[in-house]
Amino acid sequence: MTNPSRLHLPTMLRVCAYFVTGAVLALPLSRAPAVVAAALGAALGAVLGGRLARSPYRTIALLGAGLLMGVLAGAVHTLLLSATSWSAWLGPARAYRTADALLAMGVLGGGAFALRVLTSRRAWFAVLEVLVPVFAFTQLVVAHRDGAINRPFEIADPIL
After folding, report:
1. What average pLDDT does this structure show over 52-76?
2. Of 48, 77, 102, 105, which is most buried by a Cβ count within 10 Å?
3. 3-state SS track over the chain
């Protein structure tokens, strides 16, 4: 009998892939703290999704939990940005960055949780698990959209 608390290599690699994908998705949209928070949220969502996928709960309930994570993150973001005491306590710039980091963590955590539940329960959803990082990296190097440059130069220029 194997020890269930032992780390499993494919699971660790999958969590690392979710971490990197979360960072890449947030990179063009956010500052460094939000990128790190997004990556941590995606990794945590992948871990929790993989564990809860083995539970007896129905898939739709777990998907609802992932959606609820994202919606709650959006609600907390809105609440924090509208609270004057939050800005007074941290200062406006830091309050905005903190709220953005919490939003990125919650949305990507909920999305990773839902995707991990789906891929753990139905094998053909693994296609999405492969396509999400592909699209994340693709959006970094898309050079032009209708003549406008829409990419972070420090990442895309060496590749192009």
Report:
1. 93
2. 105
3. CCCCCCCCHHHHHHHHHHHHHHHHHHCCCCCHHHHHHHHHHHHHHHHHHHHHHCCCCCHHHHHHHHHHHHHHHHHHHHHHHHCHHHHHHHCHHHHHHHHHHHHHHHHHHHHHHHHHHHHHHCHHHHHHHHHHHHHHHHHHHCCEECCEECCCHHHHHHHC
